[in-house]
User: What shape does this take?
Amino acid sequence: MTVPVTWQDVAALLPEFFLVVWASALLLLDVFWIREKRTTAWLSALGFVVALVLAVGQMGRAPLLAFRGMVIADAFSVFLVALFALSGLVGILLAQDYLARNGIERGEFYVLLMFSVVGMMLMARVADLVMIFLALELFSLPLYVMTGFARPRADSEEAALKYFLLGAFASGFMAFGIALVYGATSTTSLPHMVDVIQAGEADLALLTAGAALVLTGLGFKIATVPFHMWTPDVYHGAPSPVSGFMAATAKMAGFAALLRLFVLVFPVVADLTPVLWALAALSMVLGNVAAIAQRNIKRLLAYSSIAHAGYMLSAAVAFADPHLGPQAVAAILFYLVAYVLATFGAWGVVILLERRIGQEGLLLEDYAGLSRQYPGLAAAMAVFMLSFIGVPPTLGFFGKFYLFRVVLDAGFVGLALIGVLTSLVSAYYYLRVVMLMYMKPGEPIVRREPRVQATVLAAAALTLFLGLTAASSLYAWATEAILRFG
Amino acid sequence: MLWQYVPIAIMLVLSMGLAALIVALGHLVGPSRPTHRKMIPYESGMVPIGPGMRRQPIRFYRIAMLFLLFDIEVVFLLPWAVVSRKLGLFGFIEALIFIAILLVGYLYAWKGGALEWE
Assistant: This one.
């Protein structure tokens, strides 16, 4: 007789359970009854609102291992789960008008988006090696399909195939790494693994090799150099709302699992510190330098997302230091909030200016003269660009400040220097967008889509005002969202 | 630590060596008189129609994929059925949830027309 699942287990995963049931029901409703696809969009948005409320309701509780140690509901995971629910909502707000006007609106899109968000939430909850792989696949598979959603457009299909093949390859590395880590510690449970490692019973060489392979798999998801090759092509070919959603959330999910593994379980494999150092440095340099050469805004944002993965990874380099680990987690969580806000906002502007899918209104020149006709939108875009650079009143500045402080405390002065210098380089291409909007004459055509516009303005307002007023309290909140097992 | 696997390694080398030996001997010693009849793809005498790399309708893949999905369902249900008495009500409900999830997919595929051939 097995021990049944308790209500406590269900309560620990309440937002995920709700979303799975809601998405499954919505899938059937959509094919059997719903005529207007907009209804599906609204219902899935409602589902994310409820999931957000459920996630907020979980805040402040003691950490809880559920389902016999497969998942954990701690402050870190609840913080991210709430952020994922909010991201799902924003993803739908950005996507609905775009899909409808391009004639590719199908109910499955919203259902896939919900399943993907569930996978990302589980990514933040993992307490077992098996769960990492399951969650990774659950959030990746819907993303592959959503990338190819502009079927039969060739670039969208190509992007989907490329993303799928390389993603499957990366999953292979991940699975192999998991196998090696299991071989080194003879357990898949992460809390148990910590005990085994502390007792000195783990095979360190095998563990290091396994950790390196897991890092490869996760590095693909968060798009760090040298695992970034797919990023520009996929973000370019995918429908813009999908690119924006991926750029914001897939990175969060990857970092969630990476932090939990490296800060909590793998501090013992300090040998990997130079590897992380190199990944972070390469991402910052290559992402920013390659972005300068881009004429297409989607490719520019893709390279910029690679660079931001590098900034965040530079704080994770301090994972092996027991005192700095928690600080690195807080700094990265804070930066994720700033990055997600600016990313959603910037992609929202891209969606508003994209006249026909993947064809017109995507070049940087198309942004010329935006400030004359649409001062609000241009100001919002300027805020996002300044936040990406890290200019003081915006949230991005505080994000970079906390990140580089951790890097300096850990003694990686060279890495911090690379971060600051590449930020300067990035100012060149971010400010070019601002310069085009404000100083060049042009006749940009912008969609009247109130939901997307409202999302963009709200993201801009949050980026600016959280930076001006609440940055330190947000950081304090991120500090409380500390990683723990039990 | 790895010494216990040595017999397997010897076995592997021996079997591969034997296979290579037999194939090599056949090539070296056996007479080779290729006639037209002997070189056609099917020794049964069936005449092949068209080239081997033809385009297949995508429908086959769809059916194959659906078959795989629901085949896995059976693979999971079979071991459950064997121990269902031991698992009791809890196991029964678990299996029902599992079937319900797959049922959603089945209904979706059905309504979406994936089960129709034309």
Summary: Chain B has a mean pLDDT of 87.
